[in-house]
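Please check this:
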Amino acid sequence: MRPITFINYNDTFKKQLAEIYSQSIIQLAPRFYNSAQIEMWANYPQQHPEAFAELLQQGDVIIAIDAHNHAIGFGQLHPHNYVSLLYVSPQVSRQGIGRAIYQQLEQIAIKTHQTTISVTASKLSKPLFKQLGFELIDTEIAVRNGIEFERYNMVKLLPN
């Protein structure tokens, strides 16, 4: 695998991140979600481009960049102890990139003296977060545009 670098959010990558967001859902989530759920979830950046752009401006966003200076994944910590976004391009999924992005976010949380880090995981991301040491706190049903999604509130204790 080619070298990967990590950078803080840069607005020039906004369109690439929207594409990663959508394509990761479209290509990786069908095992876990029905077509209505996928369509509603994946279309968020296209249907709400201003809101998506504003979302990327919040907290700490780390972008994984390949050797050709293309974004291949990104994650967001907002607030300082909550992983609010973690998406990887389907072309490089299951190659450790999501884990590596998460590790960058965890280091930020540790540097800001957080004692825990939490996430509301999807069915798709729950196994990764479990591997990363997160524990399931509870399961919830979120409703977006009348469509239900089962989500998992998870937490991990951070080293002091």
About this structure: Strands lie at 5-8, 60-65, 71-77, 82-88, 116-121, 135-144, 147-157.
